[in-house]
Amino acid sequence: MNLRRLLAVPDWANAVRVLAGGAQLDRPLRTVRATLDPGHLPAPGELVLVAGPVSATDWRIDALLRRSADAGGAGVLLPGLAPLTGTRLLADRLGMPLLVTEADPLELLVTARLHLAEPDLDQAQLVMATQRALGDRPQSPEDVVTVLRDLLRSPVALLDDRGRPFAGELADARLVRVDEPVAQRIDLDDGVLLAHPALRPRPGLWVAAALKGTAAARAEIVPPALAVAAGAVQRWLLANRLELERDARSRAALLGDLLRLDAEPGADLRRRVADAGWRLGGWHIGLRIGASSTVDTVARTREVVRALGAEDTVIVEHGEGWTGWLTLDQEPTAARVRKLAARLRAAHQGLGRTLGTHMGVGRPHPRPEGLATTIAEATDAARLAATRPEAGHFLHVDQLGMAQLLLEWTRTDTFEPAARALVAPLRQAPGDLVRTLAAYLDAESSLAETAAVLGVHRNTVAARIARVEQLLDVDLGRRDERLALHLACRIVTMGD
């Protein structure tokens, strides 16, 4: 044991200050001895605790520091006084830790000797305190982090499978090797980072703590407490997963009953809808978010809800993805529908940073029977959006209609070769010009929206469009040329 670890013990950490010699706190500590006589002769590895009253100007303090340094002592602890500057300078020069306390020196002596006699006592007390605080009942990740942070007096966080904190804060979280599911100790410039995996039921979940300063001396005793906290997180995950799955099944069953509705809903169905917090009246705008079969829709629902970020939106796990809708009191104007569609497009783009999906949006329809209609439209639009990367895998049903009829006309043996010949100069040039042009025309010549879909700067889009006009010798301000190029890009990208 060393002095730094003793100073991390709660009773000492709250009562003892280091006045000088702080660079030598790692000296071996073998015993703590109380004395009333500042003329005491220290032994190697001994921390001298002066229990009797001494004056800040007492020359014997300087003499005691010198004798401790000569004997290889661990330090000197004085009661309730701040020695003169000269004494502190002497302690720094000798490399001898000089401590001061306002607490009862004899109580500190008892605590120190207990920890010296029983090296595992601090660890056992920490584990027991963690277990008592967390208990056997599931507690949220935020509660687990708070309990552990208060016990360790250090930053604590719960990390996801990408090493990002989702409960608590931890500046050094990125250092945890999340692809190695074993307990980790990582040395920092000013301390130690400890991490323990919570393997079930969600691999890649971590409990991590950064011990810095004097707290780093407890690095050997903290891992079992992290393991207890990891167990508490696992209990919460299991309980929460069961609750989420039960709620998901209930919501999916209720949605199925609504979609099969062919008459006025009965009292029981209206009651279930009210209990779920859904509305049947008003005007509904359906949306469908499709995902791959490997996506855990139950676990990712909260992420989808956060991305959409609106209290007026209902989201239900449904098949391979999510079905949802917005409910408005009055029939929305065309401008408001476009604004809502733009908001949903932006939300889908944000969701795309962590989850590969495609989204379709239906038209507004009133009353319960209109809910099934708009969801059916959104589902059709989502199915088409899955095949349209140039549209950002997002489609509003109003973008279909006549364009779909024209597209059917273009699916001929004569049109496809002509389309490929028309855009051939773009395919041979750098800069993904065909996709850029298709996205630009889908966005009704909006540079900002095209840039958002492609994930590039609007100046990049402007430069590419200017290059397109130069290569094809066309004017995109002319409607007929825009239409021809729009259809050509669509048939070429679909063929590819």
Can you characterise this structure?
The protein folds into four domains: 3-117, Udp-n-acetylmuramoylalanyl-d-glutamate--2,6- Diaminopimelate Ligase, Chain: A, domain 1 (3-Layer(aba) Sandwich), CATH 3.40.1390; 121-236, Beta-Lactamase, CATH 3.30.450.40; 267-397, Alpha-Beta Plaits, CATH 3.30.70; 403-495, Orthogonal Bundle (Arc Repressor Mutant, subunit A), CATH 1.10.10. Helices cover 49% and strands 18% of the residues. It has helices at 3-8, 10-13, 59-71, 85-94, 105-117, 121-134, 141-152, 223-259, 267-276, 297-308, 334-351, 367-385, 402-410, 415-428, 433-442, 447-454, 458-472, 479-495; strands at residues 16-20, 31-35, 46-50, 75-79, 98-101, 156-159, 165-168, 184-188, 191-198, 205-212, 283-291, 313-317, 321-328, 357-366, 394-396. It has a five-stranded mixed beta sheet with strand order 1-5-4-3-2, with helices on both faces. The radius of gyration is 34 Å and the shape is elongated. The model has no long low-confidence stretch (mean pLDDT 84).
